[in-house]
Structures are given as C-alpha cells and as structure tokens.
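Standup notes
- HV: blocked on the assembly model, inputs below
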Amino acid sequence: GQQVMQIPQYQHVQEGEDFTTYCNSSTTLSNIQWYKQRPGGHPVFLIQLVKSGEVKKQKRLTFQFGEAKKNSSLHITATQTTDVGTYFCAVVPYNNNDMRFGAGTRLTVKP
Amino acid sequence: GAGVSQSPSNKVTEKGKDVELRCDPISGHTALYWYRQSLGQGLEFLIYFQGNSAPDKSGLPSDRFSAERTGGSVSTLTIQRTQQEDSAVYLCASSLEGGRGLTQYFGPGTRLTVL
C-alpha cells in the first residue's frame, strides 16, 4: 500500500534559525497539501501543490513539490515562536483520491 | 462564515459507558471525515462519508466504533463500552464534493477522557 513518510519527527531550533521538513511518498502523487496544527489546536490548511517542480511561497514559508511528484518540502526561514506547532503533509495519489496524512513534524522554537 | 463545529468540546466518561460525539460540517460540504489523534501523535483516519455513497469505514479500530451521517449533514460518532485506550482528541473535517483529494477543514475537536 501507499507509504507516506515525514522527516524529521521532531525539530527543535533557536529562534531565527531555519527549519525544513520533508514528506516522501512511495507512489506518484496528483497533489500534496500541507497543514499546520498549533499546540492545543486543530490542523489548518496551508497550501496545495499540484505541478511537478512547483514552488510556492507564503511569507517566510517556502513549499516545493519534487520533479517526480513523489516528495515535497516545507522550509521556514528565520523561525519565530509563532511557527511552533506540528506540520503535516497530506498526499493524494495520482490513481485515486484517497488522501492520507503523514505523521507530522513537531517544531519547537526557543526564544 | 461558520466553520466545522464539534460538540462537546470535552467529554469525561467512565470505562464501559457509551459516548456520542457530534460534528456539524461546513454548509454545502458533502464530504465528512473523522480522525482520532492521541496525545502528541498524528492523525488516525477513522471513517469517511461522501454524499449518499456508502461510507468508507476502513479506519474504525473495532466494532465498538460506529458513525452515522443523517441528511447528508450532521454526523455522530458513537463509541460503545469505552476503554481507556479510547482517550484521545476526535477531530472531524469536511470538504467540498468531488473526492477525497480536496482541502479538508477541521473542527476544534472533542477531547475524550475515559477514566
């Protein structure tokens, strides 16, 4: 069956440092979505990537979809304490609409 | 506009009792999902409803868990004979019709504690 792996599982950074989380799928994807869950909150949609090699930016966040449409990354430049939370990728295989969430990367930021 | 709402926000129950958790999706969203999230863990898919189609129950962990969706809108997740390992946050999400690949909008969740 389809495998979704997110790495790292945890990341602790000093405020101002950069952060990257990776999402890897065993199958080719039609699209990938990223969600953020603040501590005590619920997942909130951030962005969707559809095209091979696509790069999208939201302020300090940069999202990238791999050329083979099997992996993606989320990069945060100069982290702030407001970036704290768990970042989930959600993958949709090209041959069905069965969206599955990764296990998430939990980011903590030390002020 | 109104988002996904869930009730109750917190539920404490004794082992062996039944509980019902409610989800009101965003108006016009035909797809509805239930997830379970244990403390510090990821999202565990439970069940998916899409319009009038038969629900995908493949994620339900045991026959103590069931869910209904009446009139294509409100959904109720029922856990019978609760066990301590059922303690978790139960999240509901909804999305527009058209398949499970669409953006999901989550409710605030119900935190269930089984004593």
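- HV (later): unblocked. DSSP finds no helices and ten strands in chain B. The beta strands of chain B are 5-7, 10-13, 19-24, 31-37, 44-50, 65-69, 75-79, 88-95, 105-106, 110-114.
- Next: hand off to the docking folks.
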